[in-house]
Amino acid sequence: MKRVKPVRTAAVIIRLYPEERDILRFNAGLHGMSMSDYVRQTCLGIRLRRTPEERRRVRELARIGVNINQLARWANTYKQAAEAVEVLLALKELERHIREFATAAPEDSSTGEAS
Q1: Ramachandran category for residue 105: left, alpha or beta (phi over 0 → left; psi -120 to 50 → alpha)
Q2: pLDDT at 85
Q3: 24 close to 31: Cβ distance less than 8 angstroms
């Protein structure tokens, strides 16, 4: 037996300035959604799909976390033989990655402005 998919029958009409409609259309496009889906999910508090930029930043953050983990494991394993210079160089490199990540602020998808 076929399942009947529920159909949305209720409508909400809002009035917008053309610029506001354009912003909604743009933001919906960033998320790969229709304007209706974008407005519905935003208003209902549903987490929006990640944008390609957000996915890239999450992957980069995960890589940084893995580097921190590897550095901590190495330092704990070789406490006695660890060269202070090697540890400092690794920490400096890690700090550089974190700064690059922090300065590459993504655009705020709700307003189109950088955060």
Answers
A1: beta
A2: 65
A3: no
